[in-house]
Structures are given as C-alpha cells and as structure tokens.
Amino acid sequence: MAMRILVAGMGNLLRHDDGFGVVVAQRLLDGPIPPGVTVMEVGIGGIHMVQALFDPTDGLIVLDAVDLGRHPGTVVVIRPQVTDVASLSLTERHDQLADMHYATPSRAFMLARGLGILPAATWLVGCQPVDADGYGEGLFPEVQNAVETAITEVKALVAAIGVSWT
C-alpha cells in the first residue's frame, strides 16, 4: 500500500506573518507534488485538516507561524507535544475543544489525537514571525525569506517518512 502524507498550511493571510503556513503551502502547490503527498491550505480552518486525517495517513506536516521568541524568520521543526483529551476534565474538554474551526495547530492536533487519527509521524514546521497579530496582507521580508527554508524542511520530512520529493 502506498504511503499517504498530508502537508497542511495554517494561518490567516490577513494578519501578516500569521499567513506563513498558507504561503508555504501555496508555493508547494505551484510545483510538482509526489504521489502519496497531499498539500492543502487550511487557513484558519484546522477542522478541514482533521477531516482529511480520517483517510489513513502515515505522516502529517503542519506549516504555521510559531512565536518562540527567536529571531524573526527562524524556521523550526518541532515534534509537537499533544494533549491527551482523556486526561482533561469535562470542563477542560469543553474549553479546549469548543472552537469548531480549530484555528491553532495545537487544538487540531488534540482533536485528531482524541479521535485516534493523528499519525505517529507528526511535525510542525514553523517560522518565527515579525508580526502575526497586526492586520494587513503579506509577509514581512524576514519571514518571506524563510519560505524556501521551510519548503526544504518539508521535503526532507516527507523523505524521512518514506516518499522521495525531488
């Protein structure tokens, strides 16, 4: 059976660098994509990513702006720590899972894990934003310059899962 890998770009294009994940996904969609790899833009609708995971998936790579206090434009590859929904009280579950859009990767990961569909091979490729909260279109230059680095990281992760992306 062929490998299936999902690459999902998250973020809001109307909030400057918050659109990083969507911009990277758009760039990936402009080029050839190997069989078995699906690239999708989910924007602020992480629920669409979760729905796509109902098809058996070997790997998940999420692209997003990530504020870790680093120099703007720094690209990081993270194995996310995903909260186990079963470990939360009923009130905490309601608080954490009430957002039906699942606009943040952490909540989308938590829902997918709770549903038993989060692949063991899950990564977040993030970029330190200059500004992901202000309103406006377009990435700041430091973040725009990191798009190619993120693409390289995605292709390396896909290869590590078992699909060559040349």
Please, could you describe this protein's structure?
The chain is of the alpha/beta class and 166 residues long. It contains six helices and five strands; from the N terminus they run E-H-E-H-E-E-H-H-E-H-H. It has helices spanning 20-30, 46-52, 90-97, 105-114, 141-144, 147-161, and strands spanning 5-10, 37-43, 59-65, 75-78, 121-127. It has a five-stranded mixed β-sheet with strand order 2-1-3-5-4, sandwiched between helices. Strand 1, helix 1 (20-30) and strand 2 (37-43) form a beta-alpha-beta unit. Helix 2 (46-52) packs parallel to helix 4. The longest helix has 15 residues, at 147-161. The protein is globular. The model has no long low-confidence stretch (mean pLDDT 91).
Please state the CA-atom Rg, rounded to the nearest Å: 15 Å
How many helices in DSSP terms?
6
For the secondary structure, the number of strands is: 5
Major beta sheet summary = 5 strands, mixed
Query: Which blocks of ≥5 consecutive residues have pLDDT under 50?
Result: none
Helix content: 25-40%
First and last CA, distance:
21 Å
Overall pLDDT metric: 91
β-sheet strand percentage: 15-25%
Q: Based on Cα principal axes, name the global outline.
A: globular
**Sequence of strands across the biggest β-sheet:** 2-1-3-5-4
Order of helices and strands: EHEHEEHHEHH
Tell me which oligomeric state these chains represent: single chain
- What is the SS-derived class? alpha/beta
